[in-house]
Each structure stands twice: as structure tokens, then as C-alpha cells.
From TrEMBL:
Residue segments, region Disordered: 39-68
UniProt entry tagged with the keyword Magnesium: no
UniProt-annotated location(s): Cell outer membrane
Family statement: Belongs to the TonB-dependent receptor family.
Alphabetized Pfam families for the sequence: Plug, TonB_dep_Rec_b-barrel
Protein name: Ferrichrome outer membrane transporter/phage receptor
Highest taxon in the source lineage: Bacteria
Keyword Transport: yes
InterPro entries: Beta-barrel_TonB (IPR000531), Beta-barrel_TonB_sf (IPR036942), Plug_dom (IPR012910), Plug_dom_sf (IPR037066), TonB-dep_rcpt-like (IPR039426), TonB_sidphr_rcpt (IPR010105)
Amino acid sequence: MSNRHSLLALLLATTCLGGTAAAQDTSVQLDQLSVEATAPGPALGGSGGNLSRGDGGTAATSGGGGGPSGITGYTARVATAATKTNTPLIEAPQSVSVVTREQLNDRNVQTFADTVAYIPGAATARSGFDPRFDQIFIRGFDVLTNQGIYRDGLRVIGSGFAYPKTEPYGLEAVTILRGPASGLYGLGSPGGILDATSKRPVFVPFGEVQFQAGRFDRFQGNFDLGGPLEGSDGTMAYRLTGVRREAGTFIGLGTNDDQFNIAPAFTWKPSADTTLTFLSEFQITNTPATTFFYNDPGFRVSKYYMGDPRFAGLDQTQYRVGYAFEHKFTPDLIFRQNFRHYGLFLSAKYVDINSINADRSVATRDNGYQRNGLVQQTLDNQLEGHFATGPVAHTVVGGVDYARYSLTSRFGSYFGDSVAVPDLNLVTRNYGQQFIATPPLGATGRQTQDQVGVYLQDQAKFGNFILTVNGRYDSVFQDSRATPDSTVSRQDNTAFTGRVGLGYVLAPGLVPYASYATTFTPQVGLDRNGQAFKPATGDQIEAGVKYLIPGTNIQTAFAGFDIVQSSILRTDPTSITFQSASGAVRSKGFEVEATANLAPGTNLTIAYTHVDIRFLSQTAFDASGNTVSADGNRVSGIPSDTYASFLTYAFPPSSALRGLQIGGGIRYIGTSYADDLNTVRNTAVTLYDALVAYDFAALDPKYKGFRAQLNGYNIFDRNYTTCSFGFCNRNQPATVIGSLIYRW
């Protein structure tokens, strides 16, 4: 660790010395980097652009939770996720990416995990095709289970089997902050956070209707409409967004990917200084409770699906209600309060194959039945101030936030009971032809967590320097009860986390930087001595350079990082029936990113990531069930190298092909290990996506707003599996979705 801290000091010194030399040749002022929200580029009907103009400069709040702004095509110049203030991306002392609404439209993103498919540092599909959860890894760390997913600046909490799902059509943008963010947000993933910005009301009338159809019997309708309320004198606006989908999956056997989603929103803006936005959502989803296929020895996926349509399905109902309030006492003193209540109710039934006999004619099975309820509340109070102390300009934000969740769960299973769960005939594959009994549910278990945090941050600008310093103190209280009659297991943790980052303006739009940040994650449970696990802690050193080419909408960034997370759980080497908080993992690597809006409807993204994530201290099991050391091994399922680029081209109005937009993407996923013992590798795979769209206004102005769009994913139908933790899963085959869109 001392070598890493010495490296940080060297990086900071290099940044400062390099900046001092450059300062002799430039007179760049930091106020030239201040970026205001700009109108989106494409005109209505011109491309898959941001129809509602919701670029963060309209009804959204100006700081934490308000989302990115300064958007043109695929580029955004300002984001709030890294600092909870409106900060240009090139000034944030960490790696930040923004996926804009136009990019989501062009790629016709269908799942929240797919929003980051072309972003550096992010990996999905570690468990193959799995529509049940929004599982995403950043720099090798899981952000779902580590509570690193946010909605409008507030944490989306999940636990056990219950995790709220995010519908991408209801989003204005997704911001990815890579690296620890505990100094502002509290407990979370050392890999970073994903902040999804909800679509919000705007004071311009607009509307959109979409009808989609695709492979595997996929049919979907979307609508998005809103504008000012009549008779409100421009002080009130509304927005209503909805999705209805009925779809199968490539698994067949009655597996579904169905969804109903509706999201009303309302804004009251009685003056230029005060804004109150109400945000809500109701969603029902139905997906398979299992998406896995039986694994044969040697990390081979068989053709036998583990589930059964007679006892299947994960039904999840969720809702959220909340608000975002902002009041400007003066232009230099702003108060914000963001609040949300989330509720989730889940019922899951699944069947597993335990074993297959020698002649592969019969499979023995068990089943499981689970019901979960999750309720959570999150509240964030922020006060932002702007002032100067001599030549130093300060942007200070401080706040107090609170988060609470309560999870109830019940589980039942029939294991080894061939009457309740009859064997599967693998010759006839009699899926769905036999009655499978529902097991009785066990006693209700309950888990609650309360978190209170106090934070303070200063962004100081002096000369060409940009110094960002924040700190936060958290108290986390957790209660667990296995049954209503069992003893409550109480666990309390406190932690101080923070970040310090320094950047320097070498030239207009060119900012090298270095930063150091820390993180923590509470861990529920007891060790072999009956002591509560201490929280997992982590720190990161990051250095890089960001460049916004002056006079263009072209941004590039490079970042190198080194993250160590300590005190993670592992099997206790002295007693394998227990765990101990003595594990450690290290992730280091670098990322390269470029995003460009070259013309209306013509955009380019490029992303490359190299990550080396290894166990520093970990215990694993070999094929015989013996505990062995995994020290120095790579974490399974995380590719060492990934590359992704996506290009769209809209033919100009002077072209004979005006109205036509074409595009395509390439996603290279490098090799990774199939298990934590590093005995077998996943092979590298390259996937291709495609876009063809046509705006009918090019034929006649009376057709303005009509658009046809065709999206293909994995268009060459690459059949591949992904293995992690020693288990292998299939991935989505080639898929095509056609859309008919009308916008006004």
C-alpha cells in the first residue's frame, strides 16, 4: 500500500510540475471551462434524437440528481454524478461517461445492462443471458449487489433476491462514475456507480409513440408525451411515459420477458428560483426464475434447460414515488432535497436439475419457491454555495442523507423428492407435462438497514488548478432475524471516506488529473468467533487526461487506475463452515474513450478497457471439495480486454439518400477465466450490431415525425457461452427488432 501512496504523490507532482511549465505558454482561464446547458443537435424527425429536449437545463434541478446537461447527440459536457454539482466532465477528477437519450434511441436499448454496452470499464453478461437482474460490473466489481446503482442521485437498494429493475425507455440519460464514490454517496461498490436520470417534464409540448416487433415473439409499445399544463401560466408541466411488452426468449418452453411500465411526472415551477418535480413509476415484470442450462463436466453447457414451464416464473411488482426540490436563495446559495420511496414484491418459482444418469436418459430435479418484499426510503439534503477567498473560487456542497430498507423473505423447497418434483425424461424431454408440487414456505426472515451520512465537498479553482476535496462520515445499522422467533443479529458500522483530486488546465479543454478515493461496504454475518464482520474497505489511485477539442463536440479521455479492496468475505481457512473478513482483491488497468457528434444524426463512440483484477487473499474449492488458496488468481468472468465502438451516419439534406441513417457497432470481449482457480479460460468473442433507419419527412414534409428503424444485435449469430464461478451460461443469439415511430 505504501508503494501505491508513493505513486499517487508522484502522479500529483507530475501533474503540478507539468502544469507549471505549460502555464508559461498559456493564459487559459478556468471560467472558460464553465459549460451551460445547450440545446440538443438533431431537429425533430431528423434522427433518433432527444425529442423532448430534456438535456438537464429545463425542468431538471441544477445539481445532484438533476442529470447531465450540455448535450449534443452522443456528447454531454456537464454531469452531476461525480460532484453533486453542475461540473464539466473535464473538470471531474475521476473517469465519467454519459450515455445520452439519442444513443439509447439509436441503439434501441432494451435492458438497463445494455445501456453501458459501449462504455469503457463496464462489463455485463458475466452470467450470460439473464433478464432477471440489472447486473453490471465496473472495473471488475459488481455494482448491483454492492448498491452502486442510483436513480436521480439516490441509491436504488436491493438485497437477497430482490432488486428493483430499471426500464431504459424511461431514462433521459445514464451517467457512469468509475472508481470509489463513498466520499459523496456513502457505502457502495469500489468500481463506481451508475446514475440513471429519469425523464422529466419540460415546458414544450411533445409526444412520441413507438410500435416494435422482433425475434422470439417480441411485441412492444412505448409512449412518451408531455408539455405545459394549460392555464398554469407556464408554471406547471407534466410527462407520462409507458411501456407494454409481451415477449418470449430464445430458451422457449414458455419463458417470458413481459413488462408493463408507466411513469407519471409533474413539475411545478412557481418562479425561476424554485422547482418541485414529482417522479413516480409502477412496473410489473415477468421473467424466467432460472435461465440456466445443465453443465456437463469440463465447463460444457448441455442442451438441457434447468427449468420447467409447469413450475416457473419470476413475477415482480415494483413502484416508486418521490420528488426533487430546489430553491435558489441567491445565484450563489442553492438548497436541494431529493426523496424517494420504493416498494418491491417478488414471487419466484424454479426447478433445477441435480444430476443426469449415465445413459443420459433421466434427470433428477428439485425445486424452490421464494417470496420477497422490499421497502426502502432515501433522502438527500444538499446545500451548495459559491464564494471566493482571494484568488481562489470555491464551489462547496454539503449535505445530510438517509437511507433505509427492510427486506422480508420466505423460502420453501422440495429436494430429493421425486414425487413432488418428478424426474425429467431426457429422451422425450417432457417439459411441462408433469405436475410439480409447490413446497410450503418457511418462516419469514427479516433484514433492515439504516444509513445516515454527513458529507462536505469543496471544488477550488486557483489559476489553472482545479482541486476537489470531499469527506463523509457514515453510520450504518443492520438488523437480521432468520425467523420471527429467533434472536436479532445486530451489526453497527461507522466509516469515514473521502476523495482528493487535482487537475490542471494545460490548454483550452485539456486537463490532466490525479485523484485518490476511498470506499467501504458493510457485510452482514458473523465469523467463527461470533463476531460481526467488519466492513470491506477499499481505495483507488487514478490518473488521466481529458480533452474536449475546442470548437467541436469531440471528447476524449484516458485513465489509469489501481483499486484495492480489503476485508472481503472468504471461506475461513481454519474452519470451512464459516467465513472470515480476511480476503482482498486488486483491480488495476486503464481505459480509453472518445465520443463525438460530427453532425446531426452522425455520432461516434470508441471505448477500450484493460483490467487486471486478481485476488490478493482468497480461498477457493477444488474439484474434490478441498479448500485451496486462490491468491494471485484472476477473478473469474471478468475479461482482461474489451473494445467497443458504435458509429451512426445520417445522410445530409443535400444527398439523394437524405432521411436515411445507418450505423453499426462492434463489441470485442476478451478472454477471462471460467473459475477462480483459473483452470479454464473463456474464449474471446466479437459481436456486431447494426442500425438502419429512415425519416419519412425526406419524402414529403407532411410526414414529418414518422420514422422506421431496424436494429440488429449479434447479427452474425455468434453462439458463445460465458463461465464464471465455475458455472457456464448461454448468451443471447442474433436478435432483430423493427420499430415504427411517430414523434410530434
